[in-house]
Specification:
Elements (H helix, E strand, L loop, with lengths): L18 E7 L5 E6 L4 E7 L9 E4 L12 E5 L9 E16 L5 E2 L2 E6 L16 H17 L2 E9 L1 H20 L2
Parallel strand pairs: 5-8
Antiparallel strand pairs: 1-4, 1-6, 2-3, 4-5, 6-7, 6-8, 6-9
Length: about 180
C-alpha cells in the first residue's frame, strides 16, 4: 500500500466493525504531525512549547471529510504511545463538537471524535463519554482551546455527545468524502 492511499482506506475495519484510525501525532510528543495528501508523507506541522505535549493519540478517520475540509479528527485513548502513521482500530465513545476560527476567516466546524483503542487496557471497558472520567474530557477541551490559541486560532467547544452522535458525524463525513471524490 502506498502512503498516499491512507486517506482512502475504509473508515470501518471490515473484520471487526471498529474504526480505522491513522495516527498523525502520538501521545506524549511535542511535535504536531500532519499527513500531506499531495506529498503522500507525514510532515512536521508545528511544535508545542516546552512542557506541553499531546495527552492522547491524535489522528484522522480515512475516507471522511469534516466541516474544515480535512478528514475527521480523532482522539484515541490508549495506554502507550504508538508512532506516526500507525493504523489502529478503535470504537467511538463520543464527540466534542466545536467551531474553529482563524484570523480573517469564517468559523467552521472542527469536531473531535473521542475513541478508545481496541487494544486499550486502562479504558478498555469505557463505551460512552459519560462513563469516562469527566476530567479527561475537560482536559481534552482545554488542550484544544490552548493549542489553537497558540496558533492564532479560536477553538470553541459547543457540546459533548455520546457514541450515537459520533456515529452520525462519521457517516456524514463518509458521505461528504464520497461526494468530493466523485467531483475530482
Amino acid at each position: 500500500m502506498k502512503t498516499r492511499d491512507l486517506v482512502e482506506l475504509e473508515t470501518f475495519d471490515p473484520a471487526t466493525g471498529d474504526l480505522n484510525v491513522v495516527v498523525e501525532t502520538p501521545k506524549g510528543t511535542r511535535n504536531k504531525y500532519k499527513f500531506d495528501e499531495d506529498k503522500g508523507q507525514f510532515v512536521l506541522h508545528g511544535m508545542l512549547p516546552e512542557g506541553a505535549n499531546f495527552p492522547f493519540e491524535f489522528g484522522f478517520l480515512p475516507s471522511t471529510l469534516g466541516g474544515d475540509g480535512d478528514p475527521l479528527d480523532v482522539c484515541v485513548l490508549l495506554d502507550e504511545p504508538t508512532s506516526v502513521g500507525c493504523l489502529l482500530t478503535a470504537r467511538p465513545i463520543g464527540v466534542i463538537e466545536a467551531k474553529q476560527k482563524e484570523k480573517g476567516a469564517q468559523a467552521c466546524r472542527n469536531d473531535r471524535l473521542i475513541t478508545v483503542a481496541t487494544h486499550a487496557h486502562v479504558h478498555g471497558e469505557v463505551r460512552t463519554l459519560k462513563s469516562l472520567d469527566p476530567k479527561i474530557v475537560d482536559e481534552m477541551e482545554h488542550f484544544f482551546v490552548s493549542y489553537n490559541e497558540m496558533r492564532g486560532k479560536v477553538f470553541t467547544p459547543i457540546g459533548r455527545f455520546g457514541p450515537k452522535r459520533a456515529l452520525k458525524l462519521i457517516k456524514r463525513g463518509m458521505r461528504t468524502f464520497k461526494e468530493q471524490s466523485k467531483s475530482r
